[in-house]
Amino acid sequence: MAAAGPAIRRAQLYVPGSSMRFLEKSRSFAALDSVAYDLEDSVTPSKKPEGRRNILEILNRERVPGIREQAVRINSVGSGFALDDLTEILKGKHLDCLVVPKVDAASDLHFVTDVLRQKLPERHAAGSSNPVKIVALVESARSVMDLSAICAASPYLSGLTFAAEDFALDLSLTRTPSLHEFMYARSAIVTAARAFNLPSTLDLVSTTFRGEEGVKQLREESENGKRFGFNGKQCIHPDQVATVQEVFSPSPQEAEWAVRIVIADAKADKQGRGAWTLDGKMIDVPVVGKAKAIVARAEVCGMDVKGLQERFNDEEPQ
């Protein structure tokens, strides 16, 4: 079975499983980190069996080169649909990830993990390099309060996603352009993910994106999420993907800065210097760690890191 590309989710695009037309169209993307074929909100109860069949057909086709990861958002464990979703979807040859909504407690992920191990024992045996990953949606006050237990609930957990609309409903909040009302929840999510070494944190859906003003708002909201510590964002329309993936990639300036730091630090280390300067600014261990992380992400994003390394090979610590 062909494997997914390197794990990175700058954008995760939801595609309704009940629409074969949309499912087919999603396979034409030239560059998309993660597609999440949806069985939850976008599919009515009467259409869920059809949605499962449609998605299974897509998962059993050959991979297309433009999509790194094929995920499926199942229905919540408490909905009564989750087991039927999993029973069907786990037959898919090229399923990489499950997006689990309304994860209010660790027990929700315990259930999904048990089903994975029962249905796909070889992929989930000890030492397996290709398990089905899990991304958990944080949608309620209870979920935010139980993040530590949720993060430790499954060895297959690969990320957390903030579902702002359901969270706002749970707390009777009104969403504003500033997003200040979500500050605590968003900070809690990125902090928990980092503490438990989860690679993905996906920020809230942007509902405004059409036209010049919409694209501007999408970019501003994506940049806000990046500053908060998120490394990706949920998308609900194909037109959002390019902007979101651009924002959540290192900029050319960031990549250059990081490569210069890493090259100069290697030389400083040989000289026995724990702290040094570059462009008049102090460089120490935390700064070097950030630079190395940016270089690694730039490589996964397909940036010409090797070319930058050759260009700045003569960089010296000051």
From TrEMBL:
Residues reported to bind substrate: 73, 139
Name this polypeptide is given: HpcH/HpaI aldolase/citrate lyase domain-containing protein
Residues annotated as binding Mg(2+): 139, 166
Domain of life of the organism encoding this protein: Eukaryota
Keyword Ribosomal protein carried by entry: no
Cofactor(s) the protein needs: Mg(2+)
Isomerase found in the keyword field: no
Keywords of the record: Magnesium, Metal-binding
Any one GO molecular-function label of the UniProt entry: magnesium ion binding
Native source species: Friedmanniomyces endolithicus
One Pfam match: HpcH_HpaI
SUPFAM superfamilies: Phosphoenolpyruvate/pyruvate domain
InterPro entries noted in UniProt: Aldolase/citrate-lyase_domain, Citrate_lyase_beta/mcl1/mcl2, Pyrv/PenolPyrv_kinase-like_dom, Pyrv_kinase-like_dom_sf
Ranges where the HpcH/HpaI aldolase/citrate lyase domain occurs: 10-238
